[in-house]
């Protein structure tokens, strides 16, 4: 009898996996979202052990690593660490887009790239999965499929409410993902730029969700600049047209000031620019700046959002302007 236990356990695991795939097929997901990895992801998101029933499904908050750990513990399938990207991109990310999973429902302002990011089954989907294998499944599935688009719109609406709205100098709007350094980026564009680069044009804004959330390609091209998506681009780029300066601004909340190494990188990245380069590190407050002050490059500027009318100039013979080594070359 003891020898039958592993066989029964394996059979139970296989049965649950097969059922999860059947459920995803019924939910009309494509091949990549109804394969083994996707099915295991759903089982982990519902906290369903191999010997549990679908009626026992729950809605834990789980990140990618805890999902992988659950699959290994509950189903004996150990995925390699490099599988994280596959689970995130082919399963979790798509399920979030389709409203099956919610991202950071416990803290909508958590940055997209936070190591604390968690996912949770959407409540209506949870209620649906609890009916799987019963006579209630078919009518519940039909109702869910009819209402799914409405659910997605409502989830998107709530997600948008948490986004950071930014007004550009020309009055147009950009919405950044919540949390992280984006409130500081908002301050850079709405406070720093009008004060220290009046009439300037915001040519680029980077976001953790979308690296090119705002890009003025024509303005960049006119200055002889082409941005490669693989390059480490500063968080904000502003063209001060009146003085023909290109302000390269790093928003720092936890890392990434313009130190000597970064200044050299930016100088090389914008080597062909037809405008003079100005290197700026922006902080939310003095306390944050104190953490990085010993690393800040000479011949660069510092702006602090809590003191928006002032700037700190790190040495040199001029205030807020390009130095001879980064002036545009004369034809």
Give a verbal description of the structure.
The chain is α+β, with helices and mostly antiparallel strands and 331 residues long. The chain has two domains: 4-161, BsuBI/PstI restriction endonuclease, N-terminal domain (Arc Repressor Mutant, subunit A, Orthogonal Bundle); 165-326, Trna Endonuclease, Chain: A, domain 1. The protein is built from ten helices and eleven strands. A seven-stranded mixed beta sheet has the order 6-5-7-8-9-10-11, with helices on both faces. Helix 5 (123-129) runs antiparallel to helix 6 (137-161). It starts with a helix and ends in an 18-residue tail after the last strand.
Key terms:
10 helices, seven-stranded mixed beta sheet, 2 domains, 331 residues, alpha+beta, Arc Repressor Mutant, subunit A, 15% strand, two-stranded antiparallel ribbon, Trna Endonuclease, Chain: A, domain 1
Topology diagram in text:
Layout: H1 4-26, H2 36-46, H3 64-75, H4 84-97, E1 101-103, E2 119-121, H5 123-129, H6 137-161, E3 164-167, E4 173-176, H7 182-196, E5 201-205, E6 214-215, H8 217-222, E7 236-240, E8 245-252, H9 260-269, E9 276-283, H10 286-292, E10 301-304, E11 311-313
Parallel strand pairs: 8-9, 9-10
Antiparallel strand pairs: 1-2, 3-4, 5-6, 5-7, 7-8, 10-11
Helix pairs in contact: 1-2, 2-3, 5-6
């Amino acid at each position: 009898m003891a020898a039958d236990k592993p066989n029964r356990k394996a059979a139970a695991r296989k049965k649950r996996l097969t059922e999860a795939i059947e459920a995803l097929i019924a939910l009309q997901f494509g091949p990549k979202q109804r394969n083994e990895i996707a099915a295991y992801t759903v089982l982990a998101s519902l906290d369903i052990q191999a010997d549990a029933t679908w009626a026992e499904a729950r809605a834990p908050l789980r990140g990618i690593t805890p999902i992988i750990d659950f699959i290994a513990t509950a189903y004996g399938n150990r995925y390699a660490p490099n599988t994280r990207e596959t689970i995130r991109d082919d399963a979790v990310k798509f399920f979030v887009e389709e409203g099956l999973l919610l991202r950071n429902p416990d803290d909508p302002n958590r940055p997209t790239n936070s190591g604390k990011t968690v996912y949770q089954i959407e409540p209506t989907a949870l209620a649906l999965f609890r009916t799987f294998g019963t006579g209630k499944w078919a009518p519940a599935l039909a109702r869910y499929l009819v209402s799914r688009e409405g659910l997605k719109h409502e989830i998107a609406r709530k997600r948008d409410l948490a986004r950071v709205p930014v007004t550009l100098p020309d009055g147009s709007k950009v919405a950044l993902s919540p949390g992280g350094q984006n409130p500081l980026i908002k301050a850079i564009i709405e406070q720093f730029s009008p004060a220290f680069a009046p009439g300037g044009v915001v040519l680029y804004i980077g976001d953790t969700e979308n690296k090119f959330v705002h890009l003025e390609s024509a303005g960049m091209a006119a200055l002889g600049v082409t941005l490669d998506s693989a390059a480490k681009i500063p968080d904000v780029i502003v063209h001060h047209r009146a003085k023909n300066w290109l302000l390269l601004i790093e928003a720092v909340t936890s890392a990434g000031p313009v130190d000597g190494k970064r200044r050299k990188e930016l100088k090389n990245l914008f080597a062909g620019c037809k405008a003079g380069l100005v290197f700026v590190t922006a902080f939310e407050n003095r306390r944050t700046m104190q953490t990085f002050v010993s690393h800040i490059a000479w011949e660069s500027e510092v702006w602090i959002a809590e003191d928006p009318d002032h700037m700190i100039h790190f040495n040199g013979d001029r205030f807020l302007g390009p130095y001879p080594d980064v002036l545009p070359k004369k034809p």
